[in-house]
Write a structure and sequence with these properties.
The protein has 465 residues and is mainly β. The chain is 5% helix and 41% strand. The protein is built from two helices and 35 strands. A hairpin with a 4-residue loop joins strand 21 and strand 22. It is globular, with a radius of gyration of 27 Å. About 4% of the residues have low confidence.
């Protein structure tokens, strides 16, 4: 009992002392900046310094000369060629692999070097990474802080590379141009700040394109629809006013020769347009169509003939055939056919391929009995399939492309299929489990016998010939 009274008395005394005691010292008010904190560490999330950090890890030289320099390759067809032969009797060996941030960005290849725009979640940073194609050794990395929340991953674009430049478009529309060998930063551009671009849901999916030493982009901002930027200086060479009010989609600009006219085709949110790529009137809006305007567009337009373009999109949009005309000096375009995903050639994410009079695609999940299969159509009849893969050969949103007369297709769970392409038919010649993958959606790349592919978390390099 005595102990209890003593303990209570001590606690009461402490409380009384705490209430009545006044500390005898002066309090100094600290003004902002008095702690000498580096200014850049207090930046707001949208105040991005593009390309601010750099690290070189290794040096490498290569005698390889193969190139897969941009999204769908330099001729935009997603078709590669090689004089080497394939060995289908055994598994393709994995040459190397590298873990990445969650995303669906695609690598590009140039003279023995691999370039990939990654996202480092620990550093909240976009990162352009350069690897040796032969060994997978990371050579250098340039990155910048851009805090984002995961939204089906982060990065989802392929860089573009030449002998003088490697250019990336980040998930939030940040453009970065570097020297492809040294990683030296040349110039940068923030499309949201400069053009008031509205970055689409699930982030930017537009892949950059270089034509005649100019970077071609469709910022689809408040005032500017499309722009050509000098690759050396970063200065704007030409721009197309956004008089038609398009917004940025996930689709990429596709250069085409239509009725003898170099044209940049863009499928934006709001419609499809054709913009002159000729020197005489580069950047001029030639035509636009607003009768095809899905709310989400990921596949890029596919040229079928000198005046016909296949348009596809997911979320119930299906497909459409656009026809371009040039009469009495005036350009026009019309949607001449349109159908649901279960009625004709369609795609949700990957851009179809035109190969030897076959339009090869993967219909979306609303494509009926052919959903997620590989399906081929004739360009003259986009409604009736001429070939489809077997019932258990369904690829989801996985990528596919052609090397010589073989179609390489990756299921979105990481299983690789190879088909031999023949006139109006395809024959399965090989399948191989590459990974127990998750969302293997990023486009593939090929050069010098190496095939690059991956899922949401890894990039793999296979030696296929």
């Amino acid at each position: 009992m005595l102990v209890t009274v003593l303990v209570v008395s001590i606690y009461v005394g402490i409380i009384v002392f705490w209430h009545f005691y006044t500390p005898d010292f002066n309090i100094t008010i600290q003004n902002p900046g008095a702690d000498n904190r580096p200014e850049e560490s207090a930046r707001s999330a949208d105040d991005v310094v593009i390309g601010e950090f750099f690290m070189r890890y290794d040096e490498a030289t290569s005698s390889l000369t193969g190139q897969w320099a941009c999204f769908r390759g330099s001729d935009y067809k997603n078709i590669a060629s090689t004089s080497a032969t394939f060995n289908f009797s055994s598994d393709f060996p994995v040459q190397w692999k590298v873990e990445t941030g969650e995303g669906y960005a695609a690598p590009v290849i140039y003279n023995g070097l691999v370039y990939l725009l990654d996202y480092d979640e620990k550093l909240s940073s976009d990162a352009l990474r350069c690897f040796s194609l032969e060994t997978g050794t990371e050579l250098w990395r340039r990155w910048y802080r851009v805090p984002m929340k995961r939204n089906h991953g982060f990065s989802r674009t392929a860089p573009v590379v030449t002998g003088k430049y490697v250019i990336t478009v980040g998930p939030m529309g940040h453009v970065m141009c570097c020297n492809p060998i040294t990683g030296e930063l040349k110039w940068t551009l923030d499309m949201q700040k400069q053009f008031e671009t509205e970055v689409p849901h699930w982030y930017s999916g537009q892949c950059p394109r270089i034509e005649d030493n100019q970077l071609i982009l469709a910022p689809a901002g408040k005032e500017v629809l499309m722009v050509g930027i000098d690759c050396e200086t970063g200065e704007i060479a030409w721009q197309t006013p956004n008089s038609i009010g398009y917004k940025m989609s996930h689709s990429s600009v596709m250069p085409m020769m239509l009725l003898g006219k170099k044209t940049y085709i863009y499928s934006g949110i709001g419609g499809v347009c054709g913009i002159s790529g000729d020197v005489a009137d580069k950047g001029k809006l030639l035509w636009h169509v607003d009768t095809w305007k899905p709310s989400v567009v990921a596949p890029s337009p596919l040229q079928l003939s000198s005046n016909e373009i296949l348009l596809t999109a997911g979320y119930g949009a299906g497909g459409a055939l656009l026809q371009v005309k040039h009469t009495d000096g005036k350009w026009s375009a019309t949607i001449v056919d349109r159908y649901k995903s279960n009625e004709g050639a369609s795609s949700e994410q990957q851009t179809p391929i035109l190969y030897e009079q076959m339009v090869i695609t993967i219909p979306p999940k609303d494509g009926g009995i052919i959903r997620s299969k590989l399906v081929a159509y004739s360009p003259s009849n986009l409604r009736t399939p001429i070939w489809e893969s077997a019932a258990d050969e369904r690829f989801g949103l996985g990528p596919y492309f052609v090397i010589n007369n073989y179609l390489f297709a990756l299921k979105d769970d990481g299983e690789l299929y190879v088909y031999q392409l023949q006139q109006r038919r395809m024959t399965l010649v090989k399948k191989q489990r590459i990974m127990n993958g998750r969302d293997a959606w990023g486009p593939m790349a090929y050069a010098d016998g190496y095939l690059m592919l991956g899922d949401a978390d890894w990039v793999y390099c296979l030696k296929i010939n």
